[in-house]
Automatic annotation (TrEMBL):
GO terms for molecular function: glycosyltransferase activity. Keywords: Carbohydrate metabolism, Fucose metabolism, Glycoprotein, Glycosyltransferase, Membrane, Signal-anchor, Transferase, Transmembrane, Transmembrane helix. The chain crosses the membrane at residues 45-66. Pathway: Glycan metabolism. The keyword Membrane applies. This is O-fucosyltransferase family protein.
Length: 509
């Protein structure tokens, strides 16, 4: 297996910039927020960001000092090529830092996976599949991304993620290849492999008892669906931790996406704190959920016919108002403006809209813009030429929004889709950064009462604040409901097994 590590002086410069930015963020936060938790979280974020750079030793020393057992495992996998530009290497990185040694194991076969869904659903699936491959001692082939989903994004894994980093940083756990060895490729071309969708929410015994024998028999097994194929709970801790290691360390976006992300944070940071609003008020969301509250009749018809025209979408007849009352609709831009104001969010804060095109356009954004005049989005912060390469690629645009969401002071998703959930968990990992988890069912009731005049503004505002006091992405236990995996808390929105370091430091603080 050839491991490539594309490191050059440019990338070194990137790391320096990242480090400088981390320091700047730390400084700004110190002034703004006195809470130790926040400061701690910023330190943690900064540590992770700066890991390949000069502060490696500081990190290691701190982590060891905290007596944590697994976090250093997270850190060990960063790529490092001693044979590339050694002068640059010497000046920037601590000596003796080498990539993790390859894990030596008896290979049981090869696992190919075709992910399905949008970017963040696939992100979680990639973590699951790497953990399964590790556990079964098989070789994982770099996952294939969905090109036929609604988003029809042509991007390959390496267009979104740093594939060499993915392979290298996990090599002490599982062997990953960009493609099958030629001999096996032939077999696959001849149809001599086994393709199946694994059963959803399976525990590890399923993979051991059902999948491993197939791998041994066919040598190559192909998973043709990957969403939620591994249980949230009841898995050995080493599997949960590996899911995190992949998610928080091995999956890094390409340098093009990371660079655009850094440009956006720099622009926003210069002007102060910022909130990322994942305003999931996009046409596809509304058409498929059937949520038409606030739309005019033509819009309602347009959304409904889009749903009826889509053959893979089974649910056709939807009662929008009932769905909304059950808390199953994304908040509208108008509802969002009311809620953010009621929560006491500063009117002057910069709000970065992480979303594609908002349905209804300027007309629907008017009240949000009136309440929060500093609304920005990637298209207003970056020049068209900067976005040129990723613009048509919805997954790459989503990757950029994900990066900005991680970095923000406050993250507010208006719907609990995959982006919202995975970013929520990632922000917990980065030190329980503030994520406001809106209770939509309760909110739509309060909003209707306020709009009809049965609640005063002050009553409305205090009820909204009270209901969200503990919905800020703080440490908590995942809700476990045996036999009802759909209703449990999602592993990736609260990967509690991976947050011990922070938990312990909180307890002692
Ligand atoms: C995987 O390899 C390890 C040794 O590296 C061994 O202990 C374990 O039993 C193997 N598991 C499977 C499923 O082959
Ligand atoms: C996955 O494979 C199974 C079994 O070969 C097949 O029935 C199913 O249609 C495939 N699904 C997809 C999404 O390709
Ligand atoms: C795994 O799932 C199977 C099938 O649902 C169940 O019978 C088995 O008890 C589970 N095993 C563990 C270790 O939870
Ligand atoms: C989408 O991304 C791919 C890979 O980065 C790139 O080759 C292609 O030009 C992009 N498409 C557009 C329309 O920008």
């Amino acid at each position: 297996m050839v491991l490539l590590c594309a490191k050059d002086s440019d990338e070194k410069a990137d790391h320096r910039e990242e480090l400088e930015m981390g320091l700047k963020i730390l400084g700004a936060d110190k002034v703004e927020k006195s809470r130790r938790l926040i400061l701690r979280s910023t330190i943690k974020l900064w540590m992770i960001r700066a890991i390949t750079s000069l502060l490696l030793w500081t990190c290691v020393v701190q982590l060891i000092a905290l007596g944590e057992l697994w976090a250093p495992r997270l850190l060990k996998g960063w790529p490092h090529c001693r044979d590339v530009s050694p002068a640059v290497e010497k000046s920037n990185a601590p000596p003796n830092f080498v990539p993790p040694p390859k894990r030596v194991y008896k290979n049981n076969g090869y696992l190919m996976v075709s992910c399905n869904g949008g970017l963040n659903q696939m992100r979680a699936a990639i973590c699951d599949m790497a953990a399964v491959a590790r556990h079964l001692n098989v070789t994982l082939i770099v996952p294939e991304l969905d090109k036929t989903s609604f988003w029809a994004d042509p991007s390959e894994f390496q267009d979104i993620f740093d594939v060499d980093h993915f392979i290298t940083s996990l090599r002490d756990e599982v062997r990953i290849l960009k493609e099958l060895p030629p001999r096996l490729k032939k077999r696959v071309e001849l149809g001599q492999f086994y393709s199946l969708p694994p059963i959803s929410w399976s525990n590890i015994s399923y993979y051991e008892n059902q999948i491993l024998p197939l791998v041994q028999k066919y040598k190559v097994v192909h998973f043709n669906r990957t969403d939620a194929r591994l249980a949230n709970n009841g898995l050995p801790p080493e599997i949960q931790k590996l899911r995190c290691q992949v998610n928080f360390n091995a999956l890094r976006f390409t340098s093009r996406i990371e660079e655009l992300g850094r440009r956006i944070f720099r622009i926003l940071r210069e002007k102060g704190p910022f909130l990322v609003l994942h305003l999931r008020y996009e046409m596809d969301m509304l058409a498929f959920s059937g949520c038409t509250h606030g739309c005019n009749s033509e819009e309602g018809e347009e959304l409904t016919s889009m749903r009826y025209a889509n053959s893979w979408w089974k649910e056709k007849v939807i009662n929008s108002e009932m769905k909304r009352q059950d808390g199953l609709c994304p908040l509208t831009p108008e509802e969002t403006a009311l809620v953010l104001t009621a929560l006491g969010i500063d009117h002057n804060i910069q709000i970065y809209i992480a979303a594609g095109e908002i349905y209804g356009g300027e007309r629907r954004m008017a009240s949000l813009l009136t309440a929060f005049p500093n609304l920005v989005k990637k298209e207003t912060l970056l020049a068209p030429s900067e976005l040129r390469y990723i613009q048509e690629n919805s997954s790459q645009m989503a990757a950029l929004d994900y990066l900005v969401a991680l970095e923000s002071d406050i993250f507010v998703p208006t719907y609990d889709g995959n982006m919202a959930k995975v970013a929520e968990g990632h922000r917990r990992f980065l030190g329980f950064k503030k994520t406001i988890l809106l209770d939509r069912k309760l909110l739509v009731g309060l909003i209707d009462q306020y709009n009809s005049g049965s609640l005063s503004w002050d009553e409305f505002s205090s009820l909204v604040k009270e209901a969200h006091a503990y919905r800020m992405g703080i440490p908590k236990q995942r809700v476990v409901i045996p036999d009802k995996p759909k209703e449990e808390d999602y592993f990736y929105s609260n990967p509690q097994e991976c947050l011990q370091l922070l938990d312990e430091s909180l307890r002692s603080a």
